[in-house]
Amino acid sequence: MCDECCGCFGEYRRFALGFCIGIAILAAVAVIVVLLLGYGRVRHLGVDVDDASLRRFELATTSPGTAVAYNLTLTLAVRNRNWAMGATFRSLEADYRFDGQRFDRVAVVASYALPARKTAVFRLVSGDDGALAALGSAGVKEYRKEKREGVFDIEVGLSGEVRYQLHRTWCKLEAKCPLRLQLRPEDGAEVFQKTTCDVLKSSQRGC
């Protein structure tokens, strides 16, 4: 009788051991799948201009070219769209362009670690009484046209580098944000429509 009972318990122990091994294997596979989904495929950062205010935008002819006097305030939002991977970006800068020509460059942040599913917000306040811009006659003509219409097309170009968690490569980060801005008086208010920027795909391998 005792031998029969011991045999039953032995069978139970083997079944329990096999069941535990099976669960462990399934758990390991699940972890590997989660790691591959979370860290294998990169979702690039998203960039938005949440707010913008143009207080001044004037053009002056100088020797040997043209100069822009301006005051511009921007609120940039950089989103990490990955649900598992943190991202670190560095040397982030914003170029301001009119009619395809850059008239100023502004430092956004030297280095920033952005956790997964989080958003970093940067407020940029910049201006110049005579920022050089190689507009040429076509650019001057476009400026006069837009000044008559009361709306200026200004492009913000974002550039820097980004590296994602568990990845070695520093990838180029480039985005273009086309803005249509009216001159806003000091005591005036204007509703700005949030603008989603076009994040350019990197040609680097692994990015």
From TrEMBL:
InterPro entries: LEA_2, NDR1-like
Top-level taxon of origin: Eukaryota
The entry's keywords: Membrane, Transmembrane, Transmembrane helix
GO biological process, one term: defense response to other organism
One Pfam match: LEA_2
GO cellular component terms, semicolon-separated: plasma membrane; plasmodesma
Topology versus the membrane: Single-pass membrane protein
Subcellular location(s) of the protein: Membrane
Transmembrane segments: 15-37
Late embryogenesis abundant protein LEA-2 subgroup domain location: 75-180
Primary location: membrane
PANTHER family from the UniProt entry: HARPIN-INDUCED PROTEIN 1 CONTAINING PROTEIN, OS05G0367900 PROTEIN
Protein name: Late embryogenesis abundant protein LEA-2 subgroup domain-containing protein
Source organism of this protein record: Eragrostis curvula (weeping love grass)
